[in-house]
Amino acid sequence: MDMDVIAQQQHLLATHRQRLAVLLAQQAQLGSAHTPPGIITDIAAARAEIRRITAYLREQGVAVADLPDDAEPPAMENPRPPAPGAVHTIQVGNIIGSTGVAIGDGASAHVTTINHYHTPEQRRRLEDYLTLLRHLAATERARALCDSDPPLTHGLPMDTLRLAMARAAMVWDPLADLEQAQDDDAFRRSLVAWLLLPLATTKLMLYTLRSEHALSRLGSPKLSALVLSEAVPYVRRSMILDADAQRKAQLQLALKLRDPVYAEGCARLLTDLTETEEGRTALAVAFQEYQADGGASPPAFIHLVAAGLFGGAVSGGVLLAATAVLRSFVADDEGENAPASSPGRLRIPLTPAEWRAELGQRNQHFGAPNGYWCYVRPGTYRIGGWEPKDPAANLRLNAFWVARVPFTVAQYAQFLRAGGYHTRRWWTPIGWAWRTKRKIEQPYRWQEGSFNSRAEQALQGITWYEAAACGAWLAEELRFDLPAGYTLRLPTEAEWEVAAAYGPRGQRFSYPWGEQEPTAKLAVFNRKWEEGAPDVATCPAGAAACGALDMVGTVWEWCSSDYNKYPQAAHALAKGFITIDWLATPVSVPLRGGSYYSSETDVRCGARDGVLPDFGNLGYGFRVVVAPPLAHAS
Q: Of 90, 134, 343, 388, which one is least surrounded by beta carbons within 10 A?
């Protein structure tokens, strides 16, 4: 055995493996549809050399370990043979993104399906791509995008359009498209339609003709003309789209994109956004914003780009199958242990230690709370517009957690024991003035007969001042345990409405449980006021999609917005609640959801009431949220 030759061959093996790793990384970044033939040839050559050297070393008695990338991913164990003359376009084997292309004759194609999903490899590819995005987010180009949307007065606003589409990509949920699409091309068209929605349903394309020229450059003139024609009626009607309307607009646009004249434009648009430095920079900025808004794990779009699945050569159902697999991977990646599909056991915290424990148990799984806190996703939501002539507003909310049930008698008793009515710092200035002038020492009808008399009974007879003071006390108790950048407080109207009304796919319901008319199994209402409020969680069947209970009926719930500035300022704190100024100009405080003695008219997600903050009615209670601090409404 010549040891010099052995050492030389070992060095060559290491060199070829390093070269292969670089080539595979390039292939993953470019996407299978746009990988140059030279790179594909070099990958095959590198693997051939690795096989030759490995065989030689083993013949000489030298142990050589096989690495995952040394060989091409295996195909299915029993693949259906291609039809005579067919092109075996692409194989997806153990590692998504490692593709082999074999050229043949004929117009038809046979594509194998996924037989394995190699999570460690996809994690590596994802981490590499996230590293790239972090690098791009720190560039001057990204900083210019972050400062504000680029002006439309100089040059073509290509970055403006890219950023609008990148932001849409962050909130794209492939589930509905997976259910509707018949093949990879249809799925790709649905995605492009979603990316184009910010251009086709706003004024962005109508600000200047340069927007039309910019989209022509990014996609094609025909695609630009289509988007411009779609935008005109939306702008003319000043329409505000909720999730259902967005879905309808997406489907209509995707249907029109079936025309072959738009195929080239769609392909170029996806390529620009996912494979050019400018497009990736827009994605980097949008992803940075997504994370700042509370997005935990990377969205599905980022996973698919990292896996190299948007290339035109990906066909034959591979994109659909891979997306289904990756979607499960995204769900699993949101936490080390995925929760059950149903909410966990309700635990109502009383002592500070129990509150801290519940904060520690909270998760970021919509619809599957682990205890007391229900997670609500970040996003832009339609607020208001419950009746045909009602105003509506699209408001962006950060991620937050809403209490699963209204505050109970036992929970409020802890506030009383802590000296809640004798500690000024927990009260707003005007609230403290009201309390001391009226000599208020406890809520209205506290522990009188059927009112406020049971531990798990929903607290009732509370004013806004008392509810806000209790929230401030609890926020102070938990200040070292709350997530960074978050506090504990009463919800805004927008937060309450989103927690009560929105489903897992962004659809909005009339009732927390859906569209079925309320019954005694779904909510507590139409009872006599003398009975007192019910215990919380009496109607588990009436849970909202996020997992929150008693969102309608039981007690009206105090919010922190200005009743008269709904819906446009439903996400902001009404300044008049915390200063003495409201004495000159009274500000009404909103309540939502109806109470146990309301009629079914008020037991719905759109029901509102508004009174002064010092008014305490037996139907009034509250629940708290863990959410970012509020800004004042102007």
A: 388
pLDDT of residue 433: 93
Show the DSSP H helices in 105-241 as ranges: 119-137, 140-147, 158-170, 174-180, 184-200, 209-218, 221-237
CB count in 10 Å sphere of residue 405:
23
132-148: pLDDT as tens digits: 888 888 888 888 876 54
Report the C-alpha gap between 213 and 216 in whole angstroms: 5
Enumerate the H helices of 389-492 as residue ranges.
409-417, 429-438, 464-477
What DSSP letter does each residue of 69-115 carry, written as one string?
A: TSSPPP--SSPPPPPTT-EE-----SSTT-------SSS-EE-PPP-
In this predicted structure, what is the pLDDT of residue 245? 73
Q: What band does 100 get if pLDDT is binned at 50, 70 and 90?
A: very low
The confidence score (pLDDT) of residue 256 equals 93
Place of tokens 């990879």: 184
* Backbone phi, psi, residue 448, to 5°: -115, 110
- Residue 374: which H helix or E strand, with range? strand 373-376
Residue found under tokens 């370990």: 65
Give the DSSP H/E element, type plus range, for residue 392. Answer: strand 392-397
**What's the pTM?**
0.53
Supply 531's token pair.
């009975």
| Residue spans per domain, the chain | 1-71, 119-333, 352-627
371 vs 285: CA distance, rounded Å: 34
Look at 285-289, 329-333, 557-561 and tell me which has the smallest mean pLDDT: 329-333
What's the CATH code, domain 352-627?
Answer: 3.90.1580.10
Give which of 494, 491, 485, 490 is closest to 474, Cα–Cα: 490
Dihedral sign computed on CA atoms, order 192, 198, 202, 207: negative
